[in-house]
Amino acid sequence: VKRPSGMSTLLGKIGSKKQKMSTLEKSKLDWENFKEEEGIVEELAIHNRGKDGYIERKAFLERVDHRQFEIERDIRLSRMKP
């Protein structure tokens, strides 16, 4: 009896498996459903846009990190030139 082999058989086995939902995907889905049920989608969006919001703080930290990198880079380059 000859067994089927090759790439097509392998891909068929991989493709036929049902994809399971990861814990992270399930949590994200649950959170989205909770926000919709409670009607807090707009409230969260407004809060996160403010000065004390997570997104604003994250953007600020990224700008500071980039600025610090540029300063350090300029110092390194100035030391290299005679």
UniProtKB/TrEMBL annotation:
May play a role during embryogenesis. Keywords: Chromosome, Developmental protein, Kinetochore. It holds the Pfam family BCNT. GO terms for cellular component: kinetochore; Swr1 complex. PANTHER family: CRANIOFACIAL DEVELOPMENT PROTEIN 1. This is Craniofacial development protein 1. Residues 1-82 form the BCNT-C domain. The keyword Ribonucleoprotein does not apply. It is found in: Chromosome, Centromere, Kinetochore.
